[in-house]
């Protein structure tokens, strides 16, 4: 495998991740526009009139689409910390309970000019960790009890540095935004589908045929849009994991320690309390991803990550 420098890898991944994120709202609007174009193109032979009317309907609907997206985004964006803590069963880890962890985190933060995050713990013997938060007040590094007890100081320092890189590079905010956009799209398509389906049941005679076409078009666009956005979200997550590995190696000057930690984590990363796929992708090793690979994986293969780290 060709060697790629840490700084080069970070620049490439950052550019690609930003590009992918910009495409999310564009896809939502494009599919709404496509819906009106397809639907109004089915019922009249006057193509010019249909296109004009379809564009007019799209413009009329646009404020509602943007408004719903914005409202959904604001609620999910500012409530994400509470949702994540409830989904993972994490709780604050006090300094008096584990001075070792606080010393490791503080030393890395001071050496790299990073504000000290909160530290949480998950009472689970499996090995995993994640970073969360959208600003300095909410940035948090969460570690499982298993990863604290089963890794030595150098390995644990590598894991913490990986998570601090997510915070420093605003990876967590990026992932949360991408998760929110996928949720917006899913909500809009489901709401549209159910509304049209209900309306179709109320129609009779010739109107039933038109209603069936509307439902089929809505369903097709929903499937296409969901697949596209979910693959984009997974791609963002995979790129960010490579960058965080590189950043963790750069912070500690010990990439082999992080590689060793990933080997141990890969043997038992399943956190029992984690059942939501959106939350699972925040972890250093996705506890719900076992047996899944390719476009629909949120993390690159851990063997490949280890191989890259061993080149540094």
Given the helix and strand composition, which structural class is it? mainly alpha
Structural Rg:
23 Å
Order of helices and strands: HHEHEEEHHHHHHH
Largest sheet, in brief, is: 4 strands, mixed
| Number of strand segments | 4
Number of alpha- plus pi-helical segments: 10
- What is the rounded distance between the termini? 12 Å
Helix content: 55-70%
The average pLDDT value, as a whole number, equals 80
Low-confidence stretches: none
| Shape by Cα distribution | elongated
Structural domain tally: 1
Portion of residues in beta strands equals 5-15%
- Reading side by side through the largest sheet, how are the strands ordered? 1-2-4-3
Please explain how this structure is put together.
It is a single chain. This protein is mostly helical and 312 residues long. The chain has one domain (6-309). The protein has ten helices and four strands, in the order H-H-E-H-E-E-E-H-H-H-H-H-H-H. It has helices spanning 6-40, 47-88, 99-111, 145-150, 153-168, 171-202, 206-252, 255-267, 277-280, 302-309, and strands at residues 91-92, 118-122, 129-132, 140-144. The chain has a four-stranded mixed beta sheet, with helices on both faces. Strand 3 (129-132) and strand 4 (140-144) form a beta hairpin. It is elongated, with a radius of gyration of 23 Å. It starts with 5 loop residues before the first helix and ends with a helix. 38% of the residues are buried.
């Amino acid at each position: 495998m060709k060697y790629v420098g840490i700084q080069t890898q970070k620049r490439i991944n950052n550019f690609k991740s930003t590009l992918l994120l910009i495409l999310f709202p564009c896809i939502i609007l494009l599919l709404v526009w496509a819906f009106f174009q397809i639907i109004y193109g089915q019922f009249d032979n006057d193509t010019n009139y249909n296109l004009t009317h379809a564009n007019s309907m799209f413009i009329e609907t646009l404020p509602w689409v943007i408004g719903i997206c914005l409202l959904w985004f604001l609620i999910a964006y500012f409530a994400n910390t509470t949702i994540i803590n409830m989904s993972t069963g994490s709780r604050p880890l006090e300094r008096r309970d584990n001075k070792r962890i606080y010393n490791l985190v503080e030393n890395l933060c001071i050496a790299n000019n990073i504000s000290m995050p909160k530290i949480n713990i998950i009472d689970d013997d499996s090995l995993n960790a994640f970073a969360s938060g959208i600003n300095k007040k909410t940035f948090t590094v969460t570690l499982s009890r298993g990863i604290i007890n089963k890794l030595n100081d150098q390995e644990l320092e590598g894991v913490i540095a990986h998570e601090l890189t997510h915070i420093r590079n605003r990876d967590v905010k990026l992932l949360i935004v991408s998760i929110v956009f996928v949720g917006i799209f899913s909500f809009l398509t489901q709401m549209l589908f159910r509304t049209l389906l209900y309306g179709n049941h109320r129609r009779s005679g010739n109107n039933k045929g038109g209603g069936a076409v509307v439902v089929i078009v809505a369903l097709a666009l929903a499937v296409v849009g969901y697949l596209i956005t979910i693959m984009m979200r997974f791609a963002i997550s995979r790129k960010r994991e490579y960058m965080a590995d590189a950043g963790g190696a750069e912070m500690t000057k010990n990439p082999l320690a992080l590689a060793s930690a990933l080997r141990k984590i890969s043997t038992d990363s399943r956190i029992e309390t984690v059942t939501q796929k959106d939350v699972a992708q925040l972890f250093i090793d996705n506890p719900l991803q076992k047996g899944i690979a390719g476009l629909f994986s949120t993390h690159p293969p851990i063997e490949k990550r280890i191989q890259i780290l061993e080149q540094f």
